[in-house]
Amino acid sequence: MEAGLPADTPAPRLYRTTPAPKLGIVHLGLGAFFRAHGAIFTEEAIAASGGDWGILGVSLQSAGTRDALEPQGGAYIALELAPEGAKARPVQVIAGVLVAPENPEAVLAAMADPGVKIVSLTVTEKGYCHEPATGALNLEHPDIAHDLAAALPRSAPGFIVRALARRRAAGLAPFTVMSLDNLPHNGQVLRGVVLALARAIDPDLADWIAAEGRFPATMVDRIVPATKPEDIAEVEALIGCHDAAPVMHEPFRQWVIEDSFVNGERPGWGMVGAQLVADVTPYEHMKLRMLNGTHSSLAYLGYLAGHETIAATMADAVFARFVAKLWKDEIIPALTPPPGEDLGAYAEALARRYANPAIRHRTWQIAMDGSQKLPQRLLGTLAESFAAGRHAPGLQLAVAAWMRYVGGVDETGAPIEVKDPLAARLKALSDSAESPEGKVAALLGLREVFSEEMAAALLAPVSAAYARLVAVGARKAVEEIL
Ligand code: CS2
């Protein structure tokens, strides 16, 4: 505290110290993850190899991030949290923020700007308006139904299609469309929903996008828990400035990108650690199944066992042994390692990342949107295990824990705040029967999530696992299968 200032003088507000970079990227879904991952890679790439790659952030839902970042000129602090301590860095690559529902026209105009070469997305699984089990566009999705008829869209696919139509009409090349969400074949899924929507609006437009467009697949990885009020206070104490929108992240980061961009135009991400490859598939399987698959398993089981964070769950020896077993006996046997990767070492590194006590990643946060996450995180491994005649009791227990979780009542009888686009249906299905088998059968009937074949294979083992969760609780049920 400087001499002469009263003790309660508010800290000055953080503000950018360098001019905003010229735009080259529009990013849809300006959440904490992108600001702690893609934005930082991009800022470093500009520093390493130049280019006009400033980012216009677009929030598709709420105004919160814009309201926090605008008075800061788009600057914010990224706080790296290692077990040994925290390191703060200012990030200044976000040149502006738009809130799509307030001004969809401005978003489309920005996306149609000739200077913009890439539109990237972190809109979470549900933002693709697809059916998680098949990847196909859900034409009955309310936002898609709206976007089919209206020129000013609501959904991410809607913005992409309408903006590409403007570019085509103006004689411009399309922008590259790059998904940064945790979906398998995210580029292909995005291309599929964009083409399906374009085809329903204007088949010529769809043909043009199919011929000229590029939708590189990516694998993204960095653990970035949602920023909490106490994080804002911690950053202020550390840097002496008030930042209304800091992001908290672990030291680790990985980004694997399929090198397929319109006219080859992209930032020099490869110079700052991103891996540009021809085929992302083995990397995304490794990450989605080994990281996200166990994250979700620990989230449902850990939450039911009363653990608030992943680090707290990992500090419970029963869960640490459980996750090690999931990797070794159930997940790794169903994977083909990417070139040069040692999956055993990858698992050990994940265990250390999860145990990082400085990262307070809530089990409740990861438990969100399970209906959109289960297929790629758990069910792919289960399908391959069944086909190979292998048992996967741990993953079956995790599926049962998801079912127990979406029933909305925890082991102490307290309500669970279930966040999921299908929450109401999940609750109704769970309530439609009394017995574990009845509940499990009802939930396995969700064709958006479980194929008929998968449902048939899971009915007996998941019913048995569910019954154990009810009889002895999650922690004991985990212990029983060790
Ligand atoms: C997590 C992911 O919230 C979740 O579902 O599993 O956000 C996870 O932290 C990231 O994918 C790590 O890269």
Q: Could you explain how this protein is built, in words?
A:
It is a single chain. This protein is α/β, with parallel strands linked by helices. The chain folds into two domains: 23-277, Rossmann fold, CATH 3.40.50.720; 281-481, N-(1-d-carboxylethyl)-l-norvaline Dehydrogenase, domain 2, CATH 1.10.1040.10. 48% of the residues lie in helices and 11% in strands. The chain is built from 20 helices and eleven strands. The protein has helices spanning 32-36, 38-49, 64-69, 104-111, 142-149, 156-169, 186-201, 203-212, 229-239, 281-304, 310-314, 317-331, 343-355, 363-367, 370-387, 393-406, 423-431, 436-444, 452-472, 474-480, and strands at residues 23-28, 54-59, 76-82, 85-91, 94-99, 118-121, 176-179, 218-221, 247-249, 254-258, 275-277. The protein has a five-stranded parallel beta sheet with strand order 5-2-1-6-7, with helices on both faces. β3 (76-82) and β4 (85-91) form a beta hairpin. The radius of gyration is 23 Å and the shape is globular. The N and C termini lie far apart (54 Å). The model has no long low-confidence stretch (mean pLDDT 96). D-mannonic acid binds next to α10 and α14.
